[in-house]
Write a structure and sequence with these properties.
Layout (H helix, E strand, L loop, with lengths): L5 E6 L7 E9 L2 E7 L5 E5 L13 E3 L2 E3 L6 E3 L15 E2 L1 E4 L2 E5 L3 H4 L1
Antiparallel strand pairs: 1-10, 2-3, 3-4, 4-8, 5-6, 6-7, 9-10
Amino acid sequence: MAGANWKNIGPLANIPVQGARRLCLKHMGRPVAVFRTSANEIFALVDECPHKKGPLSEGIVAGRTVTCPLHSWVIGLEDGMAVAPDEGCAQSISVRLIGGDIYIHLPEAASAA
C-alpha cells in the first residue's frame, strides 16, 4: 500500500511513451505533470518551467529530460534542474509505480480529504 499521502492517478498506460499528462490535482496550489520516458520510467514535476512558467507537460521528452515548449529550456526529469547554461529548478514530486498504477505523493492530500 502506498500510504495516506499517496494518490493513485491511474495506470501507466494513460501516460504516452516519451510524453506527459497534466493532472487535475495540484501540489501546493500549483499544476502537476507526470512524465514517461521511452524506458517506461515515470517522473513528476510542478508543471511550470523555472524560466517563464511554461507548461512542461506540453514539452518534448527525450531521455530523462523535457524541453519547455516556450523557450526551449531543457529540464531534468529526475530533479527538475535546468540543464546548463540555463539555471533554475522546477519542483520535483515523488512518484511510484505499483502494480501498473502510478501513485503521486501529495503531502496536503491527507489534510484536504
